[in-house]
Specification:
Length: 371
């Protein structure tokens, strides 16, 4: 170091990033300790969107809580519905009709694609790539159009029911789905050409926010963030639930665990979800879409835990029944909350600009973090 630099005296400063900040994706607050532009330390501060959902569940009947699950990860309502209703069905031993199982898979995978499209769009926008935002949202609109046909709602769908789904899809759903399935591969290629191969995007993401596999496992990271660190673990393959064991698909993984790998893994996952939807749409049988159940559900006394592969990682529900019509206790494992725990490790040593990319790459939704 030159002699003049050795005499230079600097002090660390503390900077609040959020809870109102355009790149924090909601009301997240990070307390940064900075040495110039470098992040020395990051402390997560959450809770600004806490609504007490787990406590609310104790004063609602089992079906009445379904709409509340829409408000967890509000970009993945169908998946949230699926995890919750399957938990109740597991507790009560309910068998779901075949057609409903296939429609659940179609909706769940379309939801996964829609959620990943928001990730692609917001990641691009956080790195000042406005065009990438528009392309991904253009295609997501067609998926939420399908959700509106089925449920009457585009975001908070509340479409699934304990024992099946609310209603069968209308006839116009199928040609619209077929057209979407035909167009999406070309759309994915556009993202690759527009974003993945972009020199600036690669410079901002490769080698940035690295999360190695041992650290990811230590922090309980799951989903695309874990797979980007190199572990091919997906609940749909490892512990299949519903009818997922019937479908052929692959588990994309990364090698370096950096922001770029987390982006590429999600792009590949959309291609795999597309494969699952095509198989489900091809093989779906006719028949009823809801099991015959009592008007008032009273699960037997006991407890159950069930988890699914959500769009952000493992989404779990722990449910305790005292034999009444309302849950005695409900606890939710939100993947965004768990994944956010590793952010300070990923941010340390990088710049503030790197932190923006890193936070975008782990794809959190504060509704699920705070619950």
């Amino acid at each position: 170091m030159p002699q003049a630099d050795q005499r230079l005296h600097t002090e660390e400063i503390t900077l609040n990033m959020g809870p109102q900040h355009p790149s924090t994706h909601g009301v997240y607050r990070g307390i940064l300790t900075l040495d110039g532009e470098r992040v020395v330390k990051l402390e997560n501060v959450v809770g600004y969107l806490h609504r007490g959902l787990e406590k609310i569940a104790e004063s609602r009947t089992y079906p009445q809580f379904i709409p509340y699950t829409d408000r967890l990860d509000y970009l993945s309502a169908m998946l949230n519905n699926l995890g919750y209703v399957q938990t109740v069905e597991k507790l009560m031993g309910i068998e779901v009709p075949e057609r409903a199982e296939y429609l659940r898979v179609i909706m769940a995978e379309l939801q996964r694609i829609a959620s990943h499209l928001v990730f692609v769009a917001s990641f691009a926008l956080d790195l000042s790539a406005w065009t990438g935002w528009m392309y991904a949202f253009r295609d997501r609109e067609r998926i939420v159009d399908l959700f509106e046909m089925a449920s009457g709602s585009r975001l908070t769908t509340s479409y699934l029911r304990i024992g099946g789904i609310a209603e069968d899809v209308p006839e116009e759903f199928w040609p619209a789905l077929k057209a979407l399935l035909g167009d999406l591969p070309r759309c994915f290629e556009e993202y690759d050409g527009l974003i993945t191969g972009n020199e600036i995007f690669q410079a901002r993401t490769k080698g940035v926010g690295v999360l190695d596999l041992p650290t990811a496992l230590t922090y309980g990271v799951t989903g695309p963030n874990l797979r980007a660190s190199g572990l091919a673990f997906d609940l749909r393959k490892a512990r299949p639930y519903g009818i997922y064991s019937r479908f052929d698909f692959e588990i994309p993984t990364g090698k370096n665990g950096d922001c770029f790998d987390r982006f590429v893994v999600r792009l590949e996952e959309m291609r795999q979800s597309l494969r699952i939807v095509e198989q489900a749409a091809r093989d779906i049988p006719p028949g009823p879409v809801r099991a015959k159940l009592p008007k008032v559900l009273r699960p037997p006394k006991g407890e159950v835990y069930h988890q699914i592969e959500g769009s952000k990682g493992i989404l779990g529900y722990y449910l305790v029944s005292d034999g009444s019509a309302r849950p005695y206790r409900l606890h939710i494992r939100g993947p965004s909350f768990v994944n956010l725990g590793a952010l300070p490790i990923m941010a340390a040593g990088g710049t503030i600009q790197d932190l923006v990319a890193t936070l975008a790459s782990i794809d959190i939704v504060l509704g699920e973090v705070d619950r």
